[in-house]
Amino acid sequence: MIEKIKPVLSKKHFEEVNPLTIKDNVFKLIGKDWMLITAGDIKKFNTMTASWGGLGVLWKVNVCYIVIRPSRYTYEFIEKADSFTLSFFEKRYREALKFCGRRSGRDVDKIKKTGLTPKEGALGVYFEEARLVMECKKMYYQDLIPKQFLDERIEKNYGKTDYHRMYIGEVIKTYLGVK
Hints:
Layout: E1 13-16, H1 26-31, E2 35-41, E3 44-50, E4 53-58, E5 61-68, H2 73-80, E6 83-88, H3 94-102, H4 110-114, E7 118-120, E8 125-127, E9 132-143, H5 152-155, E10 165-178
Antiparallel strand pairs: 1-10, 2-3, 2-6, 4-5, 5-10, 6-9, 7-8, 9-10
């Protein structure tokens, strides 16, 4: 039996902020610090850790892009949902993020095991312990097509199957966790 990960509890409230005020380096924020992608509603949702994705401007709106393999349990939720959230955490939650990335919600209750606290937002579920949250509305999706890979290094991320689906979401609300 896996012991429950004990995150450092810190009750926060969240303040909505303009995404232009975020000071984080997005390469570090996503690629090194990681995020939880969550889809569904407070009654039934799933979350997964991701270190691939991006933030920027497209079609004159602030957007994020995320990629999810069809084999992931979160894929089922994001396919049914009109929106999803991105939750970013302080370093002390690294073990919880590792757990959410290595284990499937089909097999284990990630929330129970990690001790993270789900919170219902306007567009989905995020976590009380997060330091930064983005609520995103799906705008577009595209399956990655291997014959269109222009760099041979890309294929090394796949075993000839289970290519990601990319989702582009408009960043509708951005929150900072405040103690």
